[in-house]
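Model: Ready when you are.
Researcher: Fold this.
Model:
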Amino acid sequence: MTEHPGFGTMLAWLLDHRELGAQELADHAELNTDEVRAVLAGDSRGEELLRRLAPALGFHAVDLFILAGLAVPDDMAPLDAAAAMWVKNAATAAVRLPAAGRRALLQVIRSMPQEERRSSFDPKPIVPLAGGPGARVIRMLQYRNLNWSGMAQTLASVTPTYLSAATYGVISSDRKELTPRLVVDISVLLGIDARDLAALTGVILREVPPPPTPEAMDIADLLWEARRLSAEQARHVSELARSTRGDSRDAQHMELPGF
């Protein structure tokens, strides 16, 4: 089992990879340099500080909360855990759509009305909660509304990684090390530069990873945008993606399903 290196260490790895100093990060985040240096030294992280660091680093704030080992606020969590099955189905169907169809599907998702949250998002616990980088990376995928089965099927559809659902559970418990291949492929779904994710997890990439395909980037966008959907909305998106799969004429003229 790999010990979690601590958020300060992980942030230092990232800054070193980007050749960015504490002063520069503080300036970008509009923070005091001493605040950033304190985080790098291992001091506790406040919620407001992480929210300000995220855009300065080009990250979603939810990912910094997970990397820091903090509870994710409700406003950053997926709306409805029951949407997971439909989100997975939508993603695996969308990857087979032409580019115009994927763009249209994203527009449908973004156009859907925002529903009220009815319950807290409570993904399957990661054991151990204070584990290593593998646990953090799997948690980041969970906050894209992917359960282990969703991770297995979506990664297999979008990237060369083909693993069983149970394997993602093993990775989450840090009983299986993150490999360079896995870091590169997971980074695609997270919408994070592979070299950044490698720096954050302490994984060494021996080769410069190829850029993600347009299909992969669109699926990463779909997963992120679909976090705001209810299960019923996600079901409609999934059905729409499946019904238009492979038909570019229909894919270019998707309309928002009625509710």
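Researcher: Now this one.
Model:
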Amino acid sequence: MSADSHRISRLEPYLERPEPAPTLLKMLVGVQLAGFREDSGLAQDQAARALGFSAAKLSRIESGKGRRPPAEADVQALLRLYGTEDYEASVLLKLLQRAGEPGWWQRYDKRLMPEWFDRLVGLQEAAAAIRTFEIQYVPGLLQTPAYTEAVVRRGLPSAPASEVRRRVELRTRRARLLHRTDAPQLWAVVDESVLLRVLGSREVMREQLGHLVMMAERSHVTVQIVPLDVTNASAPAIPVTYLRFGGLDLPDVVYLEHIKSANFLEDRDETEEYRVALDRLADEALTPRESLDLLHRTMEQRYPRP
């Protein structure tokens, strides 16, 4: 078996996934095509010119970006250009076909699921590990429905009840990935002010902190709190989500969310800076055990049972 065959044989299990994973599969197809191109000795601009593609089009195909996977005819043309063997080509084309199957989140309308958010949800569904830092809210994957409703109503005070329900439903559905048998590792670092900011009501906050405790006791979830008395914490000014994809030759991705848009960083130098910042922040935060103790104290002292 050639090196290429061995490399692509690792992708065959993704053909059997019970749930569609279009974001992951588009990225895998793109990475493999880029690998075949490099093995053939062609630069990206040379391959694009040979097929009459624009450089932007080939770059988009190789990065796996966009709501839709690349056209099968375009992928077949690339495979022929690179002289890809039949076995590798057949696996890649099957992956491409599966990449066209919509993920559960793509059934929501674009008002709730703009393209940048569609990509985030798809990346989270595909990630082997997720690291996140939050300075205002409990991380979305760890929110209770009542807390999510309070967050939505705060951010969209004029939204109709039907839209609020749909947004709560969407976030609750996203959180299910932490209950899968192949759930990603989640490492969340949260500023203590998040625990003190009352959203909804004190009852909502007590339930939310109790949920954080329950999730933090799972083997694949780590929660650390940055206490208020750490005045020199090296915290980023905005929330950060860092995604890793285990053993698939995919780049790490950093997600930076703004009010109505987001940035995705994939350049290794940029993502490494955020990885180091998150490592430093975790060192400055309470340990997971100390963080659980703080969660319990906050529940009992700030949000006591009626």
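Researcher: Key takeaway?
Model: DSSP finds 13 helices and six strands in the chain.
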